[in-house]
Amino acid sequence: xxxxxxxxxxxxxxxxxxxxxxxxxxxxxxxxxxxxxxxxxxxxxxxxxxxxxxxxxxxxxxxxxxxxxxxxxxxxxxxxxxxxxxxxxxxxxxxxxxxxxxxxxxxxxxxxxxxxxxxxxxxxxxxxxxxxxxxxxxxxxxxxxxxxxxxxxxxxxxxxxxxxxxxxxxxxxxxxxxxxxxxxxxxxxxxxxxxxxxxxxxxxxxxxxxxxxxxxxxxxxxxxxxxxxxxxxxxxxxxxxxxxxxxxxxxxxxxxxxxxxxxxxxxxxxxxxxxxxxxxxxxxxxxxxxxxxxxxxxxxxxxxxxxxxxxx
Amino acid sequence: xxxxxxxxxxxxxxxxxxxxxxxxxxxxxxxxxxxxxxxxxxxxxxxxxxxxxxxxxxxxxxxxxxxxxxxxxxxxxxxxxxxxxxxxxxxxxxxxxxxxxxxxxxxxxxxxxxxxxxxxxxxxxxxxxxxxxxxxxxxxxxxxxxxxxxxxxxxxxxxxxxxxxxxxxxxxxxxxxxxxxxxxxxxxxxxxxxxxxxxxxxxxxxxxxxxxxxxxxxxxxxxxxxxxxxxxxxxxxxxxxxxxxxxxxxxxxxxxxxxxxxxxxxxxxxxxxxxxxxxxxxxxxxxxxxxxxxxxxxxxxxxxxxxxxxxxxxxxx
Lengths: 312, 317
Description:
Shape of chain A: globular
Order of helices and strands of chain B: EHEHEEHEEEEEEEHHEEHHHHH
Number of strands of chain A: 14
Oligomer: heterodimer
Strand content of chain B: 15-25%
Low-confidence stretches of chain A: 303-312
Structural class of chain A: alpha/beta
Distance between the termini of chain A: 54 Å
């Protein structure tokens, strides 16, 4: 039996995104373990793991973020295939190799049909981690994206999330490293998933930076070749500080370039809508808008109407 | 005599940017030496220093990037006033204090009287915070700084005769900070003055990241804590882990900004398409084909002439 679990920090988000996806992917005997979130996220997930560990005949536990929608009717079959190798401890929809920090997406990303859907600027959809050159799954990885984690029964019974990671960022990397440290493998399967999240994925970068450091303190021996002495640490610090300032300058340049691109289009749109002809026909567009609104109201009240010609 | 020197790698850029600015700034007795580059900027600028050092009448040497345009017609007067104090060695129009690396803009910038003029995406201008003193923030001021931005660099005769750019540091990055550090170490002052310039450059601040990183490390190693360069809080281990985290945060921010911008571009594209395909736009197409009888009005531009004229107004700090 494949069980589903979710740590619900936003009931509305779960209702809108995670729940329909779980319904789509669930099988008749699937159990859904939905728990109110307790901070940090690891604490709620451990509650779910405890509950799942008691399920007889458990084949897998799928942990779904409330903003994540499973868009894959064949999830059960794909999960069973990925977990048919007993060495596989966990499966995800995205992950990476050559991971050196909680920013796993800066490594070699493996992801299938994973998309990010946002509502800002009229809404839109882009491939998740689209800046990365993506490797097509199935493939083994070093870290899994925590938005959707599929745990084997072994992982459910033997591994626990680290509740000492109070800042929550990086809980997925930590769990991935624990699974691998226990000798099991991580695999990305070709799962179709939509993440419904704002463009600004991380609101407080200062907290994220602290979580990054926290994780490095814990796992630096695994994620890097650790410096043996003070001069080697100094060399690493010098390089890191130089790279940081280069990254900031590049980010600033990119921001300026993007602003210039937006400004160019805004000028074009402004030039078009400030023409005499556009201003001359403004009353037509106002009338048309009123006509559409009236039609909408009639439709809501059940009035019959025929499709009319669109004027703008 | 106030001399002007430029190291040229792209003559067309010099003709378009630096040359008009120098022509605007020079006095009848000024000597202008526009020299083809002889290698790195360090080496080329040293050649300019060697060229002018023997001149007994030298009052100042102004080193101008080929893509920098001075906009003040009374530039020489400003330079003379700034160098009245013989302790002043270097003068610029952009400077900072609390500098710890070649990324001087990460420090506390006190003066930034320049415009970045770019050609990408139809072109545009980015005035820095003390371009117009009337709009400048409270922290904007002129006076002593730890480094200046080298795109326009005024050197006193003492500096021209006694200090040299360190050719071991690389090919381009960090030449200005290192020179300012040497000047300050020799007991002279570095300061900002009230002149303005246009930097005609692309928006990409670091087009060669690996060279930039290399220069950053070399300069940090050279000064190794002296004059504040390469210092930071915590142990080397603390600093390494923090800097690695900050780097990933900067990259994450860049990814988010790109997505934000692309979303806005998509929105604008949709707006443009809807406008172009609307019936009212298509109906009125013949109107837009009519010849325009009214004289073409030129879009007001921030031309150097207008800037220079504008600067005669009492917009001073």
